[in-house]
Design goal:
Blueprint (H helix, E strand, L loop, with lengths): L5 E5 L6 E5 L6 E6 L9 H17 L3 E6 L2 H7 E3 L5 H12 L4 E6 L6 E5 L8 H12 L8 H22 L5 E7 H13 L4 E7 L3 H8 L13 H7 L3 H13 L2 E4 L2 H10 L6 E2 L14 H20 L11 E7 L9 H17 L5 E7 L4 E4 L1 H33 L12 H13 L11 E3 L6 H9 L9 E6 L14 H7 L2 E3 L9 H8 L4 E4 L3 H9 L8 E4 L6 H16 L3 H13 L6 H19 L6 E4 L35 H6 L2 H11 L20 E2 L1
Helix pairs in contact: 3-5, 4-5, 4-6, 5-6, 6-9, 11-13, 11-16, 12-15, 12-19, 13-14, 20-23
């Protein structure tokens, strides 16, 4: 039996506490299989890319990623090399000799993990034979017209073939394989059908049917136990995909998912309760200067202000120093991502701000890619006008400065009425006239192809947010992902997020939620929901999430209208904060980033590997169940001072951003709060040595 140091592992919530042997990684091989290895499609790419360093640090040269080969990705992201591991090298050589194209190298990301990439098209001639293999294994047939499912069959068959070759030459090493999502599931099904000696984990990041049902505006979470699963999948022509996903779940030794809310969904949709919840993390990089992220916020906010100056030229009658920048970003799923409830709440927020005669202006960005022709001419003109005014102001400033300098050298106080000549005044008057416009500032930066039917634009027309002068809420739809090379808003996504004040993500279907997590790591407050994995995670780990800049909208137990009112109150409360309160809140938000670090969350994956080895090889590995855990000891407490919370200690109408409350300053001791948070953010894995032969406590038993 393989022995190692004992490791105490606590689950995320309510799940048991486990005592497991620390794994001797030098005697194991770990493979992670996903369609998004080196191939960016969605959020799984971010999961694997950010987790790679933590896993590579733990497993070293015994960690491998398996994915599809695409020539462009190979040339730009992968450095080819020869396998060091003998079993992997012989597996690659064997497959290449039998008519496959298998590429091996290091993925050029943090951690530089090894990658094994299969050329799907090169092996497509085996498709019919492999369809027969899948039918024999689990009686699932794939229609010829579903090209994506056919590609996944080829990918899964190559994966199972590769793992067989590895296990044939692995000598005494045990193999662990983790498969992400249904796209990689066929490799797991075939591996188990062929009885390969490997320990398998299947991770679902979102159920197939769940995503389809939520997109159809169905009251999903309140009817989880009432769906006829087979009928719903069949009506959407994804029954074969659903069968592949469900077979993968039930074939795996261990089934994991990314959040508690998705665990509930998976239990009803896939008919198996997840064994472990493995939350998604990020690589958190701390600045050497404690408040450097605040400086970055100020710097990138100034760049967003420049864009706003151009976009609203001729209508810039609001104070940019009292303007808040909000944004929503992600796939263009109007209902799933909560754009519908967000727009409705913006209409109500606009009413509240106008009713209270607030001098706060809110500019909201929708960063959601859609089909467009090109940039809107009026938007480009706005940036050109802004640049022209900037150049004129600089030229006049230089002439003014030179005359002032000469006068001071002569010991004179210049006559301000004569320091600017007639030509200067003419140039400035022409510049002012050039800022006049007959139309309202556009609500979109691009020409939309489906302008009349676009859900966001249709809702904007219905609620009447047209960027009028009287509107305190202004809306800008940017239907394209941000890029530093854009002639319109030349900023990367990270820079843009740092420059905003609040990210708003009131999603109805969000198995995890990387967008609010990224905001948190950058010290930017965000709005999420109790139907997102991130929101549930924060509710569990933070006593008062709002005080830490995490606003959680209840979309599970409230009606849509009540949820919309709650979101409106969150936004209105945020507008009521003073500049000092927002700074305090950003400091607290940034401190939560430790909770989202892979060095903290990666150990849930470690626990899943322990568990799968104990089930696949019970004679060599074991897991013992002990008493249930409590969450005390690593939960952020409610701060002693609560000025950033919209529910407390604020005036009834919005304040200007330069208003500060001296009483609140006295109550707030940042260093004391930060130190208390550091003490409370303890790892959920108490790495405690348990001597061999220790007497079991009451309630312990073998699993």
């Amino acid at each position: 039996m393989l022995r190692g140091r004992s490791l105490s592992v606590t689950s995320l919530s309510g799940l048991p506490r486990w005592e497991v042997e620390e794994l001797p990684v030098e005697e194991l091989l770990l493979f992670e299989v996903a369609w998004e290895v080196t191939n960016k499609v969605g959020g799984i790419y971010t999961v694997i890319q950010t987790k790679a360093k933590t896993t590579a640090d733990e497993w070293g040269d015994n960690y491998f990623l398996i994915g599809p080969y695409f020539e462009h990705n190979m040339k730009t992201q992968v450095e080819q090399c020869e396998p060091v591991n003998d079993a992997v090298r012989r597996a690659v050589d064997a497959m290449n000799k039998h008519g496959c194209q298998v590429h091996f190298g290091r993925w050029l990301i943090e951690g530089s993990p090894y990658v094994v990439l299969f050329d799907i098209g090169f092996s497509a001639w085996n498709l019919d034979r492999w369809k027969g293999d899948l039918w024999e294994a689990c009686s699932v047939g794939i229609p010829y017209h579903d090209r994506e499912a056919n590609d996944m069959l080829i990918f899964g068959s190559l994966t199972a073939w590769f793992l067989k070759e590895v296990t044939d030459h692995a000598d005494d090493k045990h193999v662990v394989a983790q498969f992400h999502e249904w796209q990689a599931g066929i490799g797991l099904i075939l591996s188990r059908a062929r009885k390969l000696p490997i320990a398998t984990i299947f991770t679902t990041h979102a159920t197939l049917l769940g995503r389809y049902l939520c997109a159809a505006n169905i009251d999903f979470y309140n009817h989880l136990d009432k769906f006829n699963i087979d009928k719903e999948a069949g009506e959407r022509q994804i029954y074969h995909r659903y069968c592949m996903e469900r077979a993968s779940v039930h074939c795996a030794h261990v089934f994991t998912t990314v959040s508690e809310i998705t665990a509930i969904e998976a239990e009803h949709m896939l008919k198996r309760k997840p064994d472990v919840v493995t939350p998604n993390g990020l690589n958190v990089k701390k600045f050497s200067a404690v408040h450097e992220f605040q400086n970055l916020h100020a710097m990138y906010k100034a760049r967003i202000q420049d864009f706003v100056r151009g976009h609203f030229y001729g209508h810039l009658d609001f104070d940019l120093e009292k303007t808040l920048f909000l944004f929503i970003a992600g796939r263009y799923e109007f209902s799933n991502k909560g754009a519908d409830i967000f727009l409705e709440s913006l209409s109500r927020l606009n009413f509240l701000l106008r009713m209270h005669k607030s001098d706060v202006t809110v500019v909201v960005f929708f960063i959601m890619p859609a089909k467009t022709n090109n940039f809107n001419v009026e938007t480009l003109k706005g940036q050109a006008v802004r640049k022209q005014l900037w150049d004129i102001a600089h030229s006049v400033k230089e002439k003014f400065g030179k005359k002032l300098y000469d006068a001071l050298l002569r010991g004179e106080i210049p006559d301000m009425n004569n320091i600017l000549d007639r030509d200067d005044l003419t140039i400035m008057k022409r510049a002012i006239f050039s800022t006049q416009r007959q139309s309202l500032p556009p609500v979109t930066t691009h020409n939309m192809i489906d302008d009349s039917t676009d859900p966001i634009l249709s809702t904007i027309r219905r609620i009447g947010l047209f960027n009028n002068r009287t509107d305190r809420v202004k809306v800008i739809l940017h239907p394209e992902f941000l890029s530093s090379t854009s002639p319109l808003l030349p900023m990367d996504y990270e820079e843009f997020v740092r420059g905003c004040h609040l990210g708003v993500f009131p999603s109805y279907y969000e198995p995890w939620g990387y967008t609010p997590a990224e905001c948190t790591v950058m010290g930017i407050p965000s709005v999420t929901t109790n139907l997102s994995g991130f929101g549930c995670f924060m509710q569990e780990h933070v006593a008062d999430p709002t005080a830490y800049g995490i606003y959680i909208v209840d979309r599970r137990f409230r009606s849509p209208d009540d949820s919309c009112n709650q979101l409106t109150q969150f936004l209105y409360g945020f507008c009521k904060q003073s500049r000092r309160q927002r700074i305090i809140q950003r400091n607290r938000t940034e401190r939560l980033s430790d909770l989202l670090d892979w060095r903290y969350l990666g150990r849930y994956y470690q626990h899943a590997r322990h568990l799968t080895l104990s089930r696949a090889f019970p004679d060599k590995f074991h897991v013992e169940l002990t008493s249930p855990p409590t969450t005390e000891g690593f939960k952020y407490p409610r701060p002693s001072s609560v000025p950033p919370s919209p529910s407390g200690s604020q005036a009834s109408s919005p304040q200007s951003s330069d208003v500060e409350d001296e009483v609140e300053d006295e109550r707030y001791d940042e260093e004391k709060e930060a130190e208390r948070d550091r003490l409370n953010i303890k790892s959920p894995f108490a790495l405690s040595h348990i001597p061999r032969g220790k007497k079991k406590l009451h309630g312990e038993y073998k699993n």
